[in-house]
């Protein structure tokens, strides 16, 4: 019984908060927040990365298993006008992917677990609508470059020794959307964003006919970020 009373209280409070945000004439929170020339904050969130493979010969696909990772970073924002802001969002993104190569009988040859820690440097343009009470939708997009700390690019070992290699630097474009919520003491912004690598990240094995990398024409990262921003 106590559990259902607690659930009822949470639902009631949530309903009142949503009604306050979307009311036609709410009490405006942080009215001058968007008038600052420079604004700062931080974000927390999670991600899901995978790879897009292009093949020389399309007879067999490489299997790709995704997992959830996490994001954390800082925000620096410069106001251009009422509707446009320029944002720099340096962040740390951790992810892990498992790749399964066809044609092997032994698991130690067929499976590669790829753990990556990216330091991401995106430069983004945020386009917003007019503020509606205490909320404001936006779209965001731009380019980024990422440093992969777990790339193994400089390793002399390759897949024949169990080492999967990727380039240290990756260049991407990012597109997403979200909503700014103006709360009493801060601005809270949930958003979802896709990231798409422009450059081939694969470092080929020393043997050009390698059963792991010989049939790969290009390997590029794709990912989804869900971030929660506090400003």
General description of the model:
The chain has a single domain (2-230), classed as Porin. The protein is 11% helix and 52% strand. A hairpin with a 4-residue loop joins β3 (68-79) and β4 (84-88). The protein has helices at 2-22, 107-110; strands at residues 38-55, 63-66, 68-79, 84-88, 91-100, 111-128, 135-148, 169-182, 187-197, 216-230. It contains 2 helices and 10 strands, in the order αβββββαβββββ. The chain is elongated, with a radius of gyration of 22 Å. With 231 residues, it is mainly beta. Strands 1, 2, 3, 4, 5, 6, 7, 8, 9 and 10 form a 10-stranded antiparallel β-sheet that branches. InterPro entries: Beta-barrel_OMP_2. Pfam families: OMP_b-brl_2.
Question: Brief description of this entry?
Answer:
With 231 residues, the chain is mainly beta. It has helices spanning 2-22, 107-110; strands spanning 38-55, 63-66, 68-79, 84-88, 91-100, 111-128, 135-148, 169-182, 187-197, 216-230. Strands 1, 2, 3, 4, 5, 6, 7, 8, 9 and 10 form a ten-stranded antiparallel sheet that branches.
């Amino acid at each position: 019984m106590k559990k259902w009373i607690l659930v009822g209280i949470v639902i009631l409070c949530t309903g009142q908060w949503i009604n306050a945000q979307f009311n036609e004439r709410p009490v405006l929170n942080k009215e001058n927040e968007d008038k600052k020339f420079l604004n700062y904050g931080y974000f927390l969130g999670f991600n899901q990365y995978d790879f897009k493979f292009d093949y020389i010969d399309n007879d067999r696909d490489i299997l790709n298993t995704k997992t959830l990772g996490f994001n954390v970073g800082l925000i620096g924002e410069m106001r251009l006008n009422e509707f446009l802001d320029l944002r720099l969002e340096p962040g740390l993104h951790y992810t892990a992917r498992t790749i399964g190569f066809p044609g092997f009988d032994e698991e130690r040859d067929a499976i590669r677990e790829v753990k990556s820690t990216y330091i991401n440097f995106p430069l983004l343009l945020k386009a917003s609508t007019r503020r509606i009470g205490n909320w404001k939708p936006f779209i965001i997009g731009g380019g980024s470059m990422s440093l992969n700390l777990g790339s193994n690019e400089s390793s002399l070992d390759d897949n024949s020794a169990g080492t999967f290699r990727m380039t240290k630097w990756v260049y991407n474009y990012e597109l997403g959307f979200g909503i700014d919520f103006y709360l009493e003491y801060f601005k809270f912004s949930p958003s979802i964003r896709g990231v798409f690598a422009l450059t081939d990240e694969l470092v080929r094995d020393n043997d050009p006919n390698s059963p792991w990398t010989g049939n790969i024409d290009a390997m590029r990262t794709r990912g989804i970020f869900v971030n929660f921003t506090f400003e």
